[in-house]
Amino acid sequence: MKVPTFEIASILEDIKTRISAEDKEKLSWCISQLIESSGKTDLTTHIQSGNTYLTEETLSQIEQHSSLPLIRLAISDEEISRKSINRRISLSSSSSLDLEISLPSANFDINDFNINIFELAKEFGEATLLSIYAQKIFAYWNLFISMGFDLQVFLRYCQYIGEGYKPNLYHNVLHAADVMQACHVFMISTNIVELSEMIPLHIAALMLSAMVHDYKHPGVSNSYLYMIGDKLAIRYNDVSILENYHVSKAFQIALKENMNIFSNISKEEYRTLRKLMINAVLGTDMTKHPQHVSNLSKLSQNNDLKGEKELLISLFMHLGDLSNPSRIEKICEEWTLRICEEFFLQGDKERSNNIPVSPLMDRYLVNIAKSQIGFISGVILPFITPLCREIKGLDFLVTNAQANKEVWAGRINEFEEKIVKSKDQSASL
Ligand SMILES: [Zn+2]
């Protein structure tokens, strides 16, 4: 397992400011040992990605214990590749580092639902792409001005969140970016903002929720964490374990120095934003899906949407989270194969832990094409069809989902053969 040196060093640096001089010295030694025992590649990555917590002293420790050319490469403006966020690091009069972040220029159209996120990730890097998406979307909605988001603090927060996503096949930083972009397209494709009289705070709540909604996802489901008695299940009393974890962590990060994106809004606005975000992220728990479906009827009975902002934000968040089958075929296929393999990996873990293998997670039984037809017919279409009837401008979701269902129907045999192959492989092991 890769040790998150950056995070550990940051936490220790933070603790250093609150302890006695004697303990401070001991802690400094600990940090130097930590840095010394870490891989230099790891450190280089962390410096490249920016670290507002490493003090001058710690930076010099890194320089002492690491390969100098690598560190120089990491902090040199000229040599940082286009894939990395460009940062200028300069020492201010105090001992803290002043990091200025600027994103690479990116000319793609953030309003295009047919955007190829996988190609963009190759070009810009995954975590950086989340920041680019966020900057474009928040600029589109004028949130830097209306919400008083400081660009540098905002980008630092985005980058930290982006790097905190684990490299799962599906629940990774690209999924966060994808969902946020989907939510953005939904908002610009409909007149929901005008109809419900949303203000920037509501848009910010939706986009931030999407950005953080799977933060630090471990790649296994709530039921798996419950079954193994994971410490997260204990912490959150088995209730929406992951969703509670994601949103709680996201707010904890905003408490860190230089990452408080909420510093320029009033306490009341912060409380409202927090309530909306918690509600939206907790609403991504699939056990809440029937609630979202039944909420659709509220929209049809209630033409006055002004009082339904919280419901709409949560609904759009969930819709964004379920938008893969409504993307164009190529993108839909990539996400599908990724989530199925992540599910299969959980199935493998369940098998080896003598836990019943969850439905859809047994690689020796599940036909991916059939599972998708069932998912689109049984979950997606019954949700988005009435939704698109009530909220105008989203018909492309239904059209694409139906088209993808047809494509999967034509691939049943292909995926049946893959299951047989897997069984043969397991038998020969
Ligand atoms: Zn998600």
Can you describe this structure in just a few lines?
By secondary structure, this protein is mainly alpha-helical. It contains 22 helices and two strands.
Q: In whole angstroms, how far apart are the ends?
A: 26 Å
Strand order of the largest sheet: 1-2
Mean pLDDT: 84
- List unreliable stretches of 5+ residues: 39-56, 59-98
Cα-atom radius of gyration: 23 Å
What is the domain total for the residues? Answer: 2
Major sheet attributes: 2 strands, antiparallel
Beta fraction: under 5%
User: Class of the largest domain, according to the CATH hierarchy?
Assistant: Mainly Alpha
Query: Can you count the helices?
Result: 22
The CATH superfamily title of the largest domain:
3'5'-cyclic nucleotide phosphodiesterase, catalytic domain
Q: Which cofactor or ligand species appear?
A: zinc ion
Q: How many strands?
A: 2
Provide the succession of SSEs. HHHHHEEHHHHHHHHHHHHHHHHH
Q: Examine the coordinates and then state which fold CATH places here, giving the name of the CATH topology of the largest domain.
A: Catalytic domain of cyclic nucleotide phosphodiesterase 4b2b
Binding site for Zn(2+) 1: 175, 213-214, 321
Domain PDEase: 87-415
Keywords: Hydrolase, Metal-binding
Active site: 171 (proton donor)
